[in-house]
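The methods section describes the discrete structure representation at length, but only in general terms. The central task, working out the structure tokens from the amino acid sequence alone, is never made concrete. Nothing conveys this as quickly as seeing an actual entry. For illustration, here is how one protein appears when written out as sequence plus structure tokens:
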Amino acid sequence: MRSGSRVNVWLSVSVLAFSSLIAAQTATTSLRGTITDPKGALVQGAVVTLNNQATGYSRTTKSGNDGVYQFLEVPPATYALTVTVPGFATVKQDRVTLQVSQPATLDVAMEVKGTTEVVEVSGEAALVNTTDASQGNVFNTTQLVNLPSEGRDPVAILSLQPGVSYIGQNVDQTADSRGGSVAGARSDQTNVTLDGLDNNDQLTGLAFQGALRAPLDSIQEFRVTTSNSNADAGRSSGAQVSLVTKSGTNNIHGSIYEYNRSNIGQANDWFNEQAQIQQGLPNKPGPLVRNTFGAWVGGPIKKDRLFFFGGYEGQRTNEAIQTTRIVPSDLMRAGILQYPCASCSDFVDPAGNYTVSNGVVAMTPQGLQNLDLIDDGFGTCIDNGTCPWGGGADPNALAIFQNYPSPNTDTLGDGLDYRGFTFAAPAPAKLDTFILKLDYKLTQSGSQSLFVKGHLQNFRNTTAAQFPGQPANDVITDNSKGIFVGYTTLFTPSLINNLRYGFIRQGLGDRGLSASDFNHFRGLTDVQGFTNSILTNVPVHNLVDDVSWTKGKHTFQFGGNLRIITNNRTGNAQNISTTDTNVFWLGPAGIANQGTALDPAAGGYPAVDDTFAESYDFATAAIAGLLTETNKTYNQDKTGHFFAPGELITRNFKSTEGELYAQDSWRVTPNLVLTGGVRYSLLQPPYEIHGNQVAPDISLNSWFKDRDRPCVRGAH
């Protein structure tokens, strides 16, 4: 859910050549053109019919005094355009493909009726958006099916637009909004609509991926408007992504498919191979199996009136993620620390505190204990009670170290005390998507039409375990679902209302392993997964209404968009405290070469090389159990009840977002249109509906000013 509020008043005026009306953000489109006679004179009163034989959809209008005809709020499809004028041969243009949110222009030149009664134009009509200044591209069914995409994922194709910088999985898109920058706008500024209704992920704000996944074979087409959107497009300042679900026709059509990527010929990960060789294991790659399959079908229930489209897509993946952790070395597990010395020769300390070999000091448990008992001016750790288990290695820390696997790589760590452990961690995933859509013409003429669509998905994924033999750190689930309803009314050919309602319930789960506070060794991977749990459902009600009205040379558009967003979450992510062996919280901030306890130089041992000082500090703090930093979290509700550490806490947030717009396209001449619009957006800040939130009881403006005045006078 986006936080904060924004009041946005937006006005755009554009001067366009060969332009006319704007298609609102309602998953529809528009067509206009000019009718002329053989000498180029404008023809008024021409009867223009737009017909889709596949569904029986038909619309008729007449050209105006300026010879211009136009169709508003037209469903994207392939049509036939017929123009009839008394005294002229009838012109019929086949394969007029109208695409979502892409206003099209098709001019028609009439011929005098003679021996030719009908002029048929075959071949697909070349339609160019000369209607508005919006920048973007439309992808139709053919492109969607033929363009390659990993896992049949439409996100990969949605990103194939000029002006899009998409780096996908190279960053954590839940935390980094550069994952899908469009025309310089961050990914969380993209507005994703499905069949004209809000489909934005309210939690992560990804660039092209909505709350409900739309499989490629369910999409009729989509458009990404990268810049220069009109007043009808809002919610955010970035790209406008419009997707349209397929509909049934008078003919049965469908598809069955399966795509499989198996382990045959799979190369091993280089790091995994090196670790296997080092351990004497066979060179065997982790699993990488990806299977995508599905079936879709559409057709008539009642010819020319009632149609259905629906289907299912499933995905099963069984793959390994090469995972590398930082673990204590085998010597560190035995209480022996190593470090490179600044300048030293091979030596064996007769007191048994350390040995030096090839410039590396190996300090024995006894040597570490002696360093811990140095009085650095604040008494020994025994005197001041900071080492209740005695000086040197903490037996509790050593006991934890025994639960780590032995290292098998040095790609991470310092190569001496902290080393690496790499393994192929299984991360299987399962995804099921179900969609059913019904389209119904309430009247024979199609002046009133209705569609209803249901959408259900189930996703389950386990992340990598902390170490082999342990449970997955997280189990991710998504059982989001939605229902969409649209009602379109043609009061007259020049006055159309498009009313839509959508309800999406995002249901997301992230079940972790942690239920209590824990300690962390800085620089080491935790011995087990201390992951949090968050269970979230986000119901979103979306009501959209758009009115298009043509009056003379003006095309007016009015509309509103209401979103009621509720964020219900239960989790312990903000209810777990930690302690860390953070040497930077010591005084002085460090151990090596500081002249304090545990500093080898302070005990007469060879000094730590300055380049290794931080690594020595981390390892020493861990083995000695120096818990220097405590991050304590307390949770209390408005009744005064305190929650126990790790307890799941429920919070319910809500916000309401409303937008209104008005727009006029004034056709000054057939080749010149002035378009102006204004949009008002009010995005309410989220609030906790039960009052369990903290709010300042003083003005922050006054608070800062009260402290600024003494500073100006030179006071401290």
